[in-house]
Amino acid sequence: ETNTFNSSLSKLRELGLANRLEEFNQAAVRNARASGARFVAGSLGPTGKLLEPLGALSFEEAYASYRAQAEALEKAGVDLFIVETISDIQEMRAALLALKDTSGRPVICSLTYNEQGRTLTGTDIFTAGVTLRELGADVLSINCSIGPEGVVGLYKKYYQDLGALGLPLMVMPNAGLPELINDKLAYTMTPQKFAEIMAELTQYGVQIFGGCCGTTPAHIAVLSEAIKKISIKYHNSDSSKKEVYFTSRSRVVRLSEIKPFLKIGESLNPTARKKFAEELKAGQENFLREQAKEQSAADLLDLNVGVPELDQARLMQKCVQTLTMVTDKPLCLDSDDPAVLEAALRNYPGIALINSVNGKQSSLEKIVPLAKRYGAALIALTLDERGIPDTAEQRVAVAKKIIEYLRTAGFPEHKVFFDGLVMTLASEPQAALITLQTTEALTKLGWHTSLGVSNASFGLPQRKNINNVLLKLLAEAGLKAAILSAATYRQIDQYTHAEQLAETVILGKDPNAAQYIAQVAAPEAAPALKKSAAKELSIYETIIEGNEAAVLDLVKAALEKKKPQEILDRELLPALEKVGEYYSAGKYYLPQMIASANTMKKAFTYLKPLMQQSGSAPVGTAIICTVEGDIHDIGKNIVAMMLENHGFQVIDLGKDVPADRIVAAALERKADIILLSALLTTTMLKMKEVKAKLLEQNIDIPVMVGGAVVTPEFAGKFGAHHTADAAAAVLQAKKLLKA
């Protein structure tokens, strides 16, 4: 080893010698070479400071210190590096990343442990081994602190686990524990005793031996002779090469040990939790801390900080640091922004799961290198530039495309979880069947699968029934991980009545979830319809009921006495407005609203050509879409249907639509209004981009924005109009066109 333990930038800066860093490190390498040693290892010691959030030193400051010393040692021509006597896994991460960014030479990572078998900041040797292996460490070592007896105890305890990692193991203990003799600390363990104890480590797979404090050339000489006579017992790690690990500072989660699947708590996401969004804006952490503790049933915690117009990279870093102090659960880092992910990955003292990458080339090129560099696993969405595939076969094809990219990039495919995607059952009754087929097919190919399950139950009552039954069926199909509500998850052994009904919805056997809603929703949720005097439903009542089969006959009969416009104004539109009221009040759920809208559309489609013949002009032309990067379109589809039913000519551009295409379509179709939808906080800013491009071209068209995460305040900042729901969107659109 070089005598450079204290020749780091941080240590030399304290002495006013930072300008001599290269001089000292290069001289040390020359001296080591002059000794005749076969290999020269550049030694890097601790900074002497704790990293954030435990101390004041930032990760970037620690990284810069190690990087500067690594570059000096590399330039001097060392054969390998040894980072030693480190008591904080986060500091070791900073050093290892700096060395890997500087050189391709091997790196020995040597930490120091207390009598409880943990570092000063609480990491055991197996957790450290997993984290460092995934980051690219070449050798795992213990040095200093406890004597050889303690080291033997640690390796004996973790022999099986460490052997499974496949990393070479090394030891450099002190010559026992120091004793106070004549008011001075001294190491009294003899070379013979030292060698005798150390020799036992050959039975636990240790391959590299040395000594630290109190050891002398005599200790090393006797030790060398002793271990030459012993065969090292190597652990067969072949069976564990494809294990998937997640770590925090003090905990390891192994996928193979989690049954029935890895549970990832979904609560730390501002998209559907306004309180979290408000606290992120205010710089508060109460919700973050509370939810971290309350999701005790989860194996990992998903963290998303996507609040528009905030510095999400800084927010993510802060939240990650807070969570490492509050919980020992590993994290699932939820963002599609590489800068946000890297801020999290650098400051997270473990191995995380990234949520997510997808089959788009741009996504793969941005996210996969980050996962590879920081040792993270990946959730991969089975969608690409063409959007969400309609069939299981097409989703599997996207997964195969992703696998090919990962193989080329050298990313281990066993660390990927393919999300088969599930649409909302309230609007797409066959959605769960496609997801089940996708999950089963991917499992048969030998790949891990995951799912964000809560989307399936959106708009339905007692959502936990739908979610838990779907998870049971997915587990039977081979699901390995799920993002879910940890508080409401139940592992089902036997169905309740409500869960039996939920299964019929999932399997597509309950049209519009009618039976499920009728029996599971609160009694006041299904308003009774007043029948007409003739005991037959009117057009108005038929639309409220969502009875597509009956509406056309009633419309045709009404045309014998009424004009098309009169039927629209007095029957169809009032009925749809009443449905909107029911939905807003929680009396109707999404399936009922969609059924009513479809019934209305059927009637309107029949009346439309008749109204055109009579000279009725469209109210106006509306461009509608979900903005770029967002694939959620349920709300957008409902608004489009409502607008059309109210007499608008609707140009639906679909989902994941770039700003340039929206502006071009508005010009081409001479649009009177543009309506933009976004469900994700990460895509909301694309709305602002559309407005900016309109202003650049001096196009004065009203822009209306909406979605679960969109607020009036956000819309007002860039001159857009906010709408809370579909019914309000129609009324506001009409007002804007009259203005």
From TrEMBL:
GO terms for molecular function: cobalamin binding; metal ion binding; methionine synthase activity. The keyword Amino-acid biosynthesis applies. This is Methionine synthase. Zn(2+) binds at residues 144, 212-213. Pfam families: B12-binding (PF02310), B12-binding_2 (PF02607), Pterin_bind (PF00809), S-methyl_trans (PF02574). Residues 1-227 form the Hcy-binding domain. The gene is metH. Catalyzes the transfer of a methyl group from methyl-cobalamin to homocysteine, yielding enzyme-bound cob(I)alamin and methionine. Subsequently, remethylates the cofactor using methyltetrahydrofolate. Belongs to the vitamin-B12 dependent methionine synthase family. Residues 619-739 form the B12-binding domain. The keyword RNA-binding does not apply. The lineage of its organism: Bacteria, Bacillati, Candidatus Margulisiibacteriota, Candidatus Termititenacia, Candidatus Termititenacales. It catalyses: (6S)-5-methyl-5,6,7,8-tetrahydrofolate + L-homocysteine = (6S)-5,6,7,8-tetrahydrofolate + L-methionine. Its EC number is 2.1.1.13. Keywords: Amino-acid biosynthesis, Cobalamin, Cobalt, Metal-binding, Methionine biosynthesis, Methyltransferase, S-adenosyl-L-methionine, Transferase, Zinc. It comes from Termititenax aidoneus. GO terms for biological process: homocysteine metabolic process; methylation; tetrahydrofolate metabolic process. Residues 526-619 form the B12-binding N-terminal domain. Pathway: Amino-acid biosynthesis; L-methionine biosynthesis via de novo pathway; L-methionine from L-homocysteine (MetH route): step 1/1. GO terms for cellular component: cytosol. Its cofactor is methylcob(III)alamin; Zn(2+). Residues 261-507 form the Pterin-binding domain.
